[in-house]
Amino acid sequence: MEEKITSRHNPLVRRAREVREGRDRGLVFVEGPRLCEEAARAGLEVAAVLYTDTFARDERALRLLDSLRPAVEKIVAVSDGVMGQLSDTKSPQGVVLLARRPASGPDSLDARPGATPLVVVLHRVQNPSNAGAILRVAEAAGATAAVATTRTADLFSPKALRGAMGSTFRLPLWAGAEFGEILEWCARRGVRTVSTSLGAARTHSQIDWTGPRAVVVGSEGAGLGREEAQATDDSVRIPMRPPVESLNVAVAVAVVLYEAARQRDAG
What we know:
Blueprint lengths: L3 E2 L5 H10 L6 E5 L1 H9 L4 E6 L7 H10 L5 E5 L1 H7 L8 E6 L17 E5 L5 H14 L3 E5 L8 H7 L2 H4 L2 E5 L1 H10 L3 E5 L5 E2 L9 E5 L8 H6 L2 E4 L11 H18 L1
Parallel strand pairs: 1-4, 3-4, 6-7, 6-11, 7-8, 9-11, 9-12, 10-12
Antiparallel strand pairs: 2-5, 3-5
Helix pairs in contact: 2-3, 5-6, 5-10
């Protein structure tokens, strides 16, 4: 019979909190049935599962738990109070999964041999929900990989995972790159880097996206610095009718990537 945890001071509960808060970077805190299913389908190595009795009454929940039992040592029930204290959302969804953080690094970007590179580089994107949304649109539009520089929000934080809705588990990632390091990586592989700038001479639809490309975006408030933008191979602007002067960073990435997808599909 599976144990039931009723104390928030239980060692597993304490560790789950540390993972949720980013103090244990070896694991990922995955919450809710949808994200837990995505993690399981993506083949993440699951270290532990915590769930409530209320959650386990649902057929979908039982299928999820049954699918995890053969490979997971720790699957434990917790009280509603413990789950409420653990949850990263206002309305706890009844299940939390702790999984080994997937490998991410330069080698991950070569994980799709044969595909023409279309890489998204997040530099100092500080809002985790925006970072997650960028990963989701990157996968949807056919990007081959994503890179997050050292001063970017943690792509595996709970808010970023919710924004990505599973794309984090499937898209090849390089987290913790230095800005110059990723530019050098692109240069060595013939991947031309493209930044977005209000003052760029060409629009996002006036350059060729069919070759190897990397879209480089900066922080929500300031974008890329002047020297950072100048360090990229090309710069483009997204046409906007006045008085609008800027777009949400995830929306801007979507506009650019879908133009790249349109050109690649047409070719």
